[in-house]
Amino acid sequence: MTQRDSETNPASGGGYPGEMLGMPPTGRGSLGRLWPRVLALLIDWLLCSLIAAGLFGYRFGGHGANGFVPLAVFFVENVLLVGTIGSTVGHRICGLQVRRLQDRLNGPVSALIRSVLLCLVIPAVIWDRDGRGLHDRVAGTVLQRFR
Question: What is the pTM of this model?
Fold first, then answer.
């Protein structure tokens, strides 16, 4: 099986990631792939850590309760930005957007559910055959490419 075949044929036995959700295989509207999602997360985490350092005196590598300050900023960023414009700063830079499965922008309730589960980490690393994390499945959302 070639690299291209492995991208278009998920382990479920045919098709491509996002096909069962009615998404195109590539380009605008397709499922956000792993590396752009990881890059978006790193951008958001760095930005939230810088905000935590500037506004709340967080020190990189902080311990105890201080170590959770960037996570709290990350949570607020996700709830506010994903719940209103559908993407965080990292998502926007990487060309990704969180949408409801009914092809509309995310709302505040699903953004809250998604953000809580994302901050718990474990739901975000449990994926289905379409490449959606458990946090997206529970919230009824999908991370799509918008360009």
Answer: 0.84
